Amino acid sequence: MGVADADHDRRQIEQLILAYATFADRGDGASMAALFGAEPEIRLPGRNVSGREKVGRFFGGVRDDPPGTLHVMSNIVIDADGSDVATSVTYFQVLGAAGPQAWGRYVDEFRRTDGAWRIAVREVDVLGSA
After folding, report:
1. What CATH number does domain 3-129 carry, 3.10.450.50, 2.60.40.740, 3.40.190.10, 3.90.930.60?
2. CB-based burial, 14-25: b 16+ in 10 Å, e otherwise
3. Rounded to whole angstroms, how far apart are CA atoms 87 and 78?
4. Each residue's pLDDT expressed in tens, for the chain with a length of 130 residues
């Protein structure tokens, strides 16, 4: 695969990262869970969630009505070399009506399966909260 393929992969992965933020702000747990691969893992401070069923239940706890948050993603750095595995680091801020709620970074590993990128591992590194 060439440079153009790796650039295309990076654009697809960036859209996946941004879709997560959009679905989180809508409270759309089912769409959030669909962004993850067959055997996903979410590493949270003090808690890990592994496996499609558990990750689905984790996001199923997201409210169906808009939760009143705004996820802001920035400083997205994606390492994709054209293979079927890529990584990224993304800074995030979660804003609510009263201001910042949490901020930190996502450290992600992605896998391409059947031509589609999915999040395989998401490590949530919370650097601060209000």
Report:
1. 3.10.450.50
2. bebbeebbebbb
3. 6
4. 567 788 999 999 999 999 999 998 888 888 989 999 999 999 999 999 998 888 888 887 665 555 588 999 999 999 999 899 999 999 999 998 889 999 999 999 999 999 999 999 999 999 999 8
- The alpha helices in the chain, defined as continuous H runs, are 3-26, 29-34, 52-60
